[in-house]
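From the shared-data thread, chain only:
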Amino acid sequence: MKAIIQRVTKASVAVGGDQINSVGRGLCVLLGISSEDTEKDAEYMVSKILNLRLFEDESGRAWSKSVMDKNFEVLCVSQFTLHCVLKGNKPDFHLAMPAELAQPFYDSILERMRSVYKPELIKDGKFGALMQVHIQNDGPVTIEFASPSGPTDPKMLAKQEKQQLRRDKCCPKGPQEPSREGGARRHQQASTTSSSAEGDEESEKAF
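Structure, as tokens:
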């Protein structure tokens, strides 16, 4: 799951020219759900969104308070295009969760957020609609992050596997190189054995 979080002085979302939701000072969150996301990703995202310290405290110290600390509002907007993969100049969205699965998943994220925070302060757009989002960024402050178990592009995964194989070939995990002291002892033992064999041979010649 990916998110772009903007600290705002105000933000609103409209559909067909009609405003359906707005917030004052707080956060505007563009949220992209991937086909690999689980409840664990949702839990991580909700915690991060509500606890990011993007606001100043009472003394004016920056990066000290979260949206919950300040009792500010949050406007969430579903944004599947965050999972865009470019094929030349054409965007491809195969990593995004299909709409029929993403909508109930997105709704569950909003419900989770409302259960943790004040429900009347959590606003959203209209899932699947062509929206116009108006954002007045404060700062500007824009934070982008993904959940730890976010999607992996198959091409990138294949590239990483090839790199690992090359590393394994260059640095095989074989037995450790013998120590200098151990090698010296073996060399001494070999020399002693060789000397004994030569002595036995000389003894045989004497007879």
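Residues 10 and 24 are 4 Å apart (CA to CA).
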